[in-house]
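We include this case.
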Amino acid sequence: MIARYSLPEMAEIWSDQARYDTWAKVECLASQAQAMLGRVPPGAVADIRRAKAPSAARVAELELQRDHEILSFLAAFCEDIPDDSARWVHLGMTSYDLVDTALGHHLARACDVLLRAVARLRGVLADKAVEHWDTACIGRTHGMHAEPTTFGHKLAGFAFAVDRSIRRLEAARTEVAVGTISGSVGTYALIDPFVEKYVCGELGLDVEPAPSQVVARDRHAQLLQAIATLGACVEQIATEVRLLSRTEVGEVEEHRTVAYQGSSAMPHKRNPTTSERLVGLARLLRGYAGTMLENVALWHERDLSHSSVERVVLPDAMIVAHYQCTRAADLVAALSVFPERMRGAIDQTNGLAYSSAVLADLLEDGTERERAYRAVQAAADGATSSGEDFGARLRAQGIETGSLSPERFLVHHDVILKRLEILRDMGR
């Protein structure tokens, strides 16, 4: 992923050097396990453990001669190991014993970093929702004014969606935190299963139960589906901010620094650029998820068609999701909210937002449903065409109204607030 959308904590995990550092760690652990079985001399293990992971530049240099990254890595790694000890490196292993076990370790670390960012987003949303729980605003369905709700209620829905994403990510982390050291077609023909158990245990990984040389790719597809769904949840937040930021609405606004410049040609512009960026990144994540589904079906025990895809998609998806969630939390935390504009939107249609309450009152008083609906609808249509107050039109038709205010619609709102407070307290 380009540096613009990369944050250091996540990007470091996916650097070439981090990959080679982990490969070296896997080789050291494997040699140690082999020594515990009596297959590798203890002195050789000591030499292997003392060796430094080769630099990415050195591996790239050797790859020009070998056209094989793993063999180039092993050659570079063994340059720092005496010949008598170097021959024990990678004993009984095949390339993807190294690659997939290290990948499981990287994915587990990356999931942990992402989960911290998502948990922060959940907390920021919950806090902001509680802060604006009583900030009345118009609800919209089909993009049109519906009934009053509160801005806090909107944010609560987003907080619970993000919480569900956390559970999906946690489940996916379990599935991808897996390794295998089982040999060329996964039969342990040249390596004792103890080596796999030991190495994976030291790395905090589970073992692929029926390896085919590689870890099953449906695991990675599950992770990318969870990430894409998370991205869509963030997109929903960003879309709401964009819609409420429009000039004719103006109910919220992204935080602006003194350095902000919104347009190269129009100095007055205050564009929701952060929200727009978050929406765009969600599209990337959906694309990555579809691509990873293509990686599930490999030829026979394995082929290499998945490798080029994963080199791009796995790092990019993790980096983008981390960036998106981090910036979304920043956006919500600093969001400017304008309660007076929200209240003005409720009043904009001269009371039409209360039509459902009037209908309910008529039904409770015994009016037949169709007659009640048509009467309220006629008053609403008349108020819309004439610009009159909705209540006045109702009274002109002989319909008396009770209290017409946002509070009428929020009598049971505390039920949702209690659920939200439990969610908020979970992350503390």
